[in-house]
Please model this.
Amino acid sequence: MNHRVRTFAPVLPVVAVIALLGLPLVPGEGGAGPADAVSGLVVLYCAIRQLRDRSRPLTPTAVAVMGLPVLGLSIAAMGASSPGAGLSGLGRYLQIFVLVPAAVVLLVRDRRDFRLLAWSFVALAGWQGAIGVKQYVTATGASYQGEDIRAVGTFGPTDVMGMATVVSFGLICALALALGRNDARQRAVAAACAFGLLVPLALSFSRGAWIATAATCAIQLALAGLRRALKIAAAVAAAGIVLVGGFGVGTAMLQERISSITQVTDAPDQSVVDRYTMWAAATAMWREHPLTGVGLKGFPEHRDGHASLALSSGSDTDGAGAGYLKQPLLSPHNMYLLVLSEQGLLGLLTLAGSWLALLTCALRGLLRVHRTQLPGLDCALVSTGLLTWQLIDFMYADIGGPSTVLTAVVFGVAAWWSLVGANEEKRLPPAASVYVPRTEAAIQ
Model:
């Protein structure tokens, strides 16, 4: 056991960040949590290790890709309404999109460390999912249509997307591990975890998480091979029939929620109306300040001057151990529009440009591994899947809440594969290309 701890020692602080998201939060508490504090310590720990060991630094390409958002963020911080707002906004963005991802890249040494993080995502999803299912069964979850049945895990009603996000990440990692070229037992366990996580994901009643997860899993299956995709699609269909027909998971409320996905334009509910109204407000802010936006943390201040009367005063939250609370609408619930309104075109191009570069490198590495039958298909599918899910989810969600720190780890995981892991075989001498890489042999 001590040997294993020493083996994984560098990456264990990142695992601790993931594990801390399983702790219960104070009802009604939002914003930063214990995991955020530990993520700061992870960055400090990584910096000390780099100074002490003078070990592998980031390559110039990695520095350029991961450091690109700093330009737009710095300019947007200078345009904030107050120095305090600028500094706090800059710190949050740097934490999520630059510092923590860079620390993850530097602390993950090989695919063995990478797989440990992937299984940590699955374990956290299983824990939060189990709590969510219990909340649904015992009617102790967040309020949904007058009943306390919405599965939210430990995140509470103020972060209803928290558990859905965690479970989605775990499901994507489990599916990727099941599609990899590892031993049969590991693939079987991963497949069982993926199927099991479908239940809490359904009970989260999160339409956005459903859409992002379905699209991402379809992409993962397609990239893993058509034959596998058809087999697993058939298995998922069979599991869906069993869950809906046999165990009664498909309640009337759940079926209504699913059907409402097609009604977001024809007959939208108030939450969708609010979202459309805030999207329009964010677009109006950008038109007034097209290059640099209104400044970091500026959306709430400028919202009322650009939103129509269709916007409600806030969303009602209740249940899951917390009392009734009207939560103010302080963001457009669209990451791209939030960046566009607060940071302008410059901020969107630098931030989204960094994400697009990571996705391009991840896909290129995945296709090369798939084509040449090299090890690491599961790692490629994990990173590509997590990044794809996050970029889809950003179309109707943004950063905020205790679960946001997990987004930072996701970008770090994706960046490691895109900028380091996908290029491991390229650094081997030609004569060694027929052998399994040393890091992969150690895993076996």
About this structure: Residues 9-267+328-420+436-443 form one domain.
